[in-house]
Structures are given as structure tokens and as C-alpha cells.
Specification:
Chain lengths: ~325, ~325
């Protein structure tokens, strides 16, 4: 950490914010301490400082410093710099505290916390924290994890509207295909991240799960080169994609009384007169294979009576377990 | 607990100073300790920052010090902050991360009023910087949980004990227990109640979609002082030393299993199968999962579990003879 550098950058910000005119590099050098005498070293240092200020989001403007010469000058417009005035109530400050701890990645949490601090700093008469009028934070604490390495570059791509390429592994297969996508948005559904957009290779809208993206995501076009179509809704695209199937098939099971509590809860239960200690349960399901798997997990507490397709599926599955 | 000292780049420090100066300037006087806590730094670091701001000197056109401040008796005040008396606008990443977090809070069922007011204020203040947040959205899985979340949130706010009927899927068992609520968590899209379970005498998480019934009792909650909230950032399910290690092999079609549950190790085998190791306090849960996967899963270890799976499958199959 360079204290002198921070001091110099802070001085430049104060100076350029208070000047209405554009100031030349030379004028800045005169006003601010810490620049070297040697011209080339100064130029390099000044370039780095400008870059750093812009990276922080400081709106550094360039213009002609005077009518008479062509020297380029710099200033910061107060209107573009300043966060508009805002007033926060104590309960809003409490919510802000929870919200700035939602992101689990250090970088994104840092950005959210930075925003929260600016907002509290912008709250003109303080925000009720000085007089002890703090409010209890909400009891609900959501957490958002972004462990997938693809998240960072995709966030950038969506923010800057740039196309990307990546390798994608289709569910369950080890084969990988290369995709070029114009991303429209990123969605977290039930804890999983998806990106949706226009797939250039397929020439159609597509959704990809971030955990299935292998290797690096590369940004391949200039900022602003992705046009998000009017009405495009990645939320809907993802919803359609992993829609729960309708339970349109009916099964009859024999379930041991006192076991299979989920089956007893969801099905229609009648005691099985022919088999004391067992109940007959009528229940709806969608896919015989996956439902057979679910029923197999109950072991000898459940027997499928009907239909034959489900009965055969569970017998096949149990035989598979036995090898 | 004081924040850990860490390296701060000059850019980060400048960002912090440009918020710190207006934070103090907009309040007449503010405590040193609470300001340090708000900004997540030690009092020593805070004083260093204040000194740095105070030392800023412009040499032209005439030498002067634009920032004037003082700190004594644990209080800070700034009498002159010149052009940096107001904070810098929100950057796109700042506005978006915060708005997404707030919308997630609203979606999770947090008390809507303060959250909605705050979202509106930030959208107004952020302007275009908040735009990217509309392209990133979070949806939380909460089947029939709206009412339940509200009930538990109310119990939490009122400091009341709750009685839960809770389905333990691993053992296929409905359980009854009294719980003193600590907080409601939303992790990986699922909502949980964290609380002191009086039956287990420990801190436990209850998935809201497995709560069959929740009654708020007219009894004050009493969470023991030494009850440690779960460190969510370190992972919800952490193995205990007493947990058993199960080694399974998974066919290509069921590799998703290794994505869904926390594995201690994952090894790719030559034939496209995966070998995974996971720790579990309850091998009954593993047995159920393996039966579910049929021919797509094999138990490698422990041997007793492999035998148990085999015997269960054989006994079940016998019912179809």
C-alpha cells in the first residue's frame, strides 16, 4: 500500500472537482505534491493515476485547457461525480447491512458493501445511527454463492453487452461442444446459475447451466455489440427449460403402515384388508423410471401393485442394484 | 472482534476515503469506534485514513489544506471537506450487486416495506449504473413457503419458541420438536430455519419445504448464549469427525449426484464412471440414494453399507415373486 499514492490521487480528485476550468497535466503537477521532476517519469506516473481514477468510476473529463493553446486539460464535473442526495430510515440501514452480506464471493460482497457505505455517506442528516435509534435487522438472511468460475466473465459480458465463447458439457455426457453466445442475462434458479441468450451456432435462443461450462469464458466482441431483443426474458427461458413434469399417471402402491410417511401424506390411503399392517396408496406420478427410483429408495416398505410399467421399472432397478 | 489487518491497495483506500469523508461530514460528530466498525476497519486504520485526508495540501494557485477535521475523545468531526463532501456515484457493479441482493431479500419474503423503499431509493440514486441488475435475477424455490416464512419470521421477531413437525427424508420419518429460532437463511436457493433444537440440544437447520407444520408457542425462545450460528460461507453441511466415509461409483448418467451433494473427493475412472467419497452422519441416507440410482451406482466402501444395500434390494425384490 502506498500512502503517498493515495494522498496524491485524493489531491487530484479534490483539485479537479473544485476547478471549473480544464487543468493541464502541468497545472496538476504544480498543485499536487508527489510527482517527480523528470518529465518522462512524470508522464508515466500521471497516465497510471488517470487510469486508476477512471477504474474507480471517477468521471474524469478531458477538454481544451484554454482558447489559445491546444493543451489537453482535465476536470471532474461535480454533477457527474456526486451521488444524489438520499435519506435513509433506520430500518433501511438495517436492511442495507443484511443486503451487503448476501454475496459470498469476496469481490461481489466488496462491491455491495462499497455501495452501502456510499449510500450511508450520502444520507444527509445521518441515518438514525447516531441517536441510538437503530432498528433490528430482518431475520431473513439470503446468501448467494458464485462458485462457478464462469460467473465473473459472464457478469462482465452481460454488463458490457459483449458476446462470449465457452466449452459446454451436455448433461451427463463427457463430450464438450464449443458455443458462441450473445448473453441476454444470468438467472439463479433454485440455487443454480444459468445464462441465456442467442446461440450463434444454433441460431436460436439457448440456456446453459454455469456448472456445465468447462474451461475459460472468453469475451469476443466489443462492448455494446450484443442487442438484447425487446421482451427477452431469461427467467422464462430457464423456467421452461426445467419445468416440473405434470403428474399425469396413476399408481397403486402397497405401503407398510408407519413407513413411507411422504407417500402416506401425498397419496390416498386405505388400509389393505387382505394384508394387515399394510395400506393401499393411490398416488400420481410423471415419469416411470425416475419414480421407480424414488420408490426403490423405500426398500421393502413399498410394493408397486399397478401399473405394470412402474412395476417392471422398479424390478429392473432392484436387479440393477444387485448387479 | 476487531477486523483482521490486511493489505489495502491505494485504489481501495481512495475509494474508502471518498466515502469516509462524506460519511463523517454529513453527521456533525460521529464515534470513532462505530465508524471503524461501519467501514470494517480497526480504529488504528481509521485514524491513519483521517490523518491522510487531513494532510492533503494543494500548492497552487495558493497553498491550502482543503480538508479540516479533528478527532478526540473517541469522536470525529469534519469542519471542512470542500469538494469531496459528497460521496462518489455508485459504479455499475456496486449498484447491481446491491440491487440484486435486495431483490433476493424481497423474494425470500423479508419484511417487504423497508426493502421496497430502499430498492426505489437506490434505483433513483444509481440511475444507469443499476441497469445491469435487471438482467440478473434470483429465484428462490419455496413451495408453499410464503406463509410459513412469514410465520417463522414473526416468531423470530417476537422471540417465541416454535413447535415443528419436520420430515427427515434420510430416514423417511416425521419428527416433532420444539425449536428456538435464530434466523432464516436462504442458501443455494433453499430456505432454512436455523434454530436451537431442544430435542437435539444443538443448532440445527430445518429446510422449510420439509416443515409439515409450524406452530408459534406462547413461550419465549431461549437460545443458549454459546449457541454458534452456522458459518454459512464455509458451507452448510460440514462433516464431523464422527461421520462415516462412504465411497461410491457413479455411471455417466448420474454424474449430477456429485454436483448436488458435497463430496470430499471426486475421481474420474477410465470407463466414464466417477468415484466419489462423501462423509455422512447417517448411512441410511446413502443407502436410500444408492437404491434410487439402481445399476448406475455401486457402493465401494464401507463393506457393511454395500452388504446392507444388497440385502435391502434382495428383500424388496423378493416381495415381487
Amino acid at each position: 500500500m502506498s500512502k503517498r499514492r493515495t494522498e496524491r490521487l485524493l489531491s487530484i480528485v479534490v483539485l479537479l472537482l473544485s476547478s471549473r476550468r480544464y487543468l493541464t497535466a502541468e497545472q496538476i503537477r504544480t498543485a499536487v505534491s508527489g510527482y517527480p521532476d523528470e518529465q518522462e517519469a512524470f508522464k508515466r506516473m500521471f497516465e497510471r493515476d488517470k487510469e486508476e481514477l477512471r477504474d474507480l468510476g471517477i468521471p474524469l473529463e478531458t477538454g481544451r485547457a484554454s482558447q489559445s493553446d491546444d493543451d489537453l486539460g482535465y476536470r471532474i464535473s461535480r454533477q457527474d461525480y456526486e451521488l444524489p442526495e438520499i435519506h435513509l430510515e433506520p430500518d433501511e440501514v438495517a436492511v442495507l447491512g443484511i443486503a451487503s452480506r448476501v454475496w459470498q464471493s469476496a469481490e461481489l460482497a466488496g462491491a455491495a458493501a462499497g455501495a452501502a457505505l456510499k449510500l450511508r455517506a450520502a444520507s444527509r442528516d445521518g441515518d438514525g445511527d447516531g441517536d441510538g435509534a437503530t432498528s433490528a435487522p430482518p431475520g431473513i438472511q439470503p446468501k448467494l454463492s458464485t462458485q462457478e468460475p464462469a460467473f465473473g466473465p459472464l457478469w462482465e459480458a452481460v454488463r458490457d453487452r459483449r458476446p462470449v465463447t465457452f466449452d459446454h458439457r451436455t448433461g451427463g455426457r463427457s463430450a464438450v461442444t464449443k458455443r458462441t453466445l450473445e448473453p441476454w442475462g444470468v438467472v439463479n434458479r433454485r440455487g443454480r446459475w444459468y445464462v441465456g441468450g442467442h446461440d450463434r451456432d444454433r441460431d436460436a435462443p439457448r440456456v446453459f447451466r454455469l456448472s456445465r461450462i468447462t474451461g475459460p469464458v472468453k469475451l469476443v466482441g466489443p462492448p455494446g455489440s450484443v442487442k438484447v431483443p425487446e421482451g427477452a426474458d431469461v427467467r422464462e427461458m430457464v423456467k421452461d427449460w426445467d419445468k416440473p413434469r405434470t403428474r399425469d399417471r396413476a399408481a397403486v402402491l402397497r405401503v407398510r403402515t408407519g413407513a413411507g410417511s411422504a407417500l402416506h401424506r401425498w397419496g390416498q390411503v386405505t388400509p389393505d384388508a387382505a394384508h394387515p399392517g399394510w395400506d393401499l396408496v393411490s398416488i400420481a406420478y410423471s415419469d416411470p423410471e425416475s419414480y421407480a427410483g424414488y420408490l426403490a429408495s423405500f426398500g421393502p416398505d413399498v410394493i408397486v401393485i399397478d401399473p405394470p410399467e412402474l412395476r417392471e421399472a422398479i424390478i429392473r432397478r432392484l436387479k440393477g442394484t444387485l448387479g | 472482534m476487531s477486523p483482521q489487518p490486511r493489505m489495502v491497495t491505494s485504489a481501495e483506500r481512495l475509494r474508502r476515503l471518498l466515502a469516509l469523508v462524506p460519511y463523517v461530514a454529513s453527521r456533525k460528530v460521529v464515534g470513532l469506534a462505530e465508524t471503524a466498525e461501519t467501514f470494517g476497519m480497526s480504529e488504528r486504520e481509521l485514524i491513519d485514513d483521517l490523518n491522510l485526508a487531513w494532510c492533503v495540501e494543494l500548492r497552487a494557485p495558493e497553498p491550502y489544506c482543503p480538508i479540516d477535521l479533528s478527532y478526540e475523545d473517541g469522536e470525529i468531526s469534519i469542519s471542512q471537506a470542500e469538494s469531496i463532501a459528497r460521496p462518489l456515484r455508485l459504479a455499475a457493479d456496486e449498484a447491481s450487486t446491491l440491487l440484486i441482493a435486495l431483490r433476493m431479500l424481497a423474494e425470500a419474503g423479508a419484511d417487504g416495506d423497508a426493502v421496497a423503499r430502499l430498492i426505489a431509493k437506490i434505483e433513483g440514486a444509481a440511475g444507469a449504473a443499476g441497469a445491469v441488475s435487471s438482467q440478473i435475477s434470483i429465484q428462490i424455490d419455496r413451495p408453499n413457503a410464503r406463509g410459513l416464512t412469514a410465520t417463522l419470521d414473526a416468531a423470530l421477531a417476537a422471540g417465541k419458541r416454535v413447535h415443528l413437525r419436520y420430515y427427515v427424508e434420510g430416514r423417511d420419518e416425521d419428527t416433532e420438536r420444539d425449536v428456538d429460532p435464530m434466523r432464516i437463511l436462504v442458501v443455494d436457493g433453499r430456505t432454512y430455519l436455523e434454530g436451537w433444537c431442544r430435542r437435539a440440544e444443538g443448532v440445527r437447520l430445518f429446510r422449510l419445504d420439509k416443515v409439515l407444520k409450524a406452530d408459534v408457542l406462547d413461550v419465549p425462545a431461549s437460545v443458549p448464549a454459546d449457541a454458534e450460528p452456522i458459518d454459512v460461507d464455509a458451507g452448510l453441511f460440514r462433516a464431523r469427525p464422527s461421520d462415516e466415509l462412504a465411497v461410491l461409483e457413479l455411471a455417466p448418467d448420474v454424474h449430477w449426484f456429485a454436483e448436488r451433494y458435497p463430496c470430499e473427493s471426486i475421481t474420474e475412472l477410465d470407463d466414464g464412471w466417477l468415484r466419489i467419497a462423501l462423509r455422512t452422519p447417517d448411512t441410511a441416507w446413502v443407502r436410500r440414494q444408492v437404491l434410487r440410482l439402481g445399476e448406475d451406482a455401486r457402493v465401494v466402501a464401507p463393506a457393511a453399507l454395500a452388504a446392507e444395500v444388497h440385502d435391502t434390494a434382495a428383500a424388496t425384490l423378493a416381495l415381487y415373486d
